[in-house]
């Protein structure tokens, strides 16, 4: 199982939704990142680097970027908002 399949499996196991985003390049059509939806905030997870990113949620949460976070931390961010 590669890193993308592992990440999607973990997201679905936590009862969240995963949306794959492909590269818009002419040379590669691989999945570049995954959106995690269904928690308190939407999180973009980049499996190749382990980075989790989320935009701010007006009045609730600030924008956050966590390098080398890993899928478990990205899921926690999506579910808890922090």
Brief overview, please?
With 82 residues, the protein is α+β, with helices and mostly antiparallel strands.
Report what the structure shows:
This protein is α+β, with helices and mostly antiparallel strands and 82 residues long. The chain starts with a helix and ends with a helix. The protein has helices at 3-13, 70-80, and strands at 17-22, 31-37, 43-46, 51-54, 64-66. Strands 1-2-3-4-5 form a five-stranded antiparallel sheet, with helices on one face. The chain has one domain (3-80).
Low-confidence stretches: none
The coarse overall form would be globular
Structural class: alpha+beta
Q: How many helical stretches?
A: 2
Number of domains: 1
Q: How many extended strands?
A: 5
The percent range for helix content is 25-40%
What's the alpha carbon Rg, rounded to whole Å?
12 Å
């Amino acid at each position: 199982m590669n890193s993308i399949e592992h990440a999607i499996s973990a997201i679905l196991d936590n009862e969240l939704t995963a949306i794959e985003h492909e590269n818009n390049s002419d040379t590669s059509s691989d999945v570049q990142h995954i959106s995690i939806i269904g928690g308190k905030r939407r999180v973009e997870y980049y499996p190749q680097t382990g980075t989790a990113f989320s935009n701010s949620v007006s009045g609730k949460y600030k924008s956050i970027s966590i390098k080398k976070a890993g899928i478990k931390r990205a899921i926690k961010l999506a579910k808890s908002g922090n």
